[in-house]
# Entry
Amino acid sequence: MDEIQFYLDDAKESMEKSIKHTWIELTKIRAGKAMPSMLDGIMVEYYGTPTPINQVASITSPDARTLAIKPFEKRIIPEIEKAIRNSEINLTPQNDGEIVRLNIPPLTEERRRELVKRVKNEIESGKVSIRNIRKDTNEALRKLLKEGASEDDVKRAEEKVQQLTDQYISKVDALSASKETEIMTV
# Structure
């Protein structure tokens, strides 16, 4: 039935988005290595408008412990420094009048454990999101049953939804394992 396929496709697409969202949230958790993506989400006041930092400067990682932020306009260096200080990344910017540098300190064992806890929380959120998609899809399929869809078609569709759920939960687990390894590697 076309409607059943529509719900299955919609569930798969939503689960993909959950995976992508989880991955994006995990990239924000720094693992001791300098990565330009650490600054994603930091907004800089630019002509009175909050603007993503990567739209007002180029961000590079010259080595594993440093981020270099080269603004397109020198006059916004103080705004970039202010945005970084006010963010949650807990790094102190330094500038030489041309480039803002961030030195990434090595992680302590305690900090690594805190980061692993944050990873586990993000992973759990991703799993909950996928399970909610399963629940919503199954409810929609049961409504089709009341509207005259065959019981066998609905049962097969629910099994496919469960297979999708299992598949995407294991993708989330794989994200978790790789991020935890990244964090715990000294």
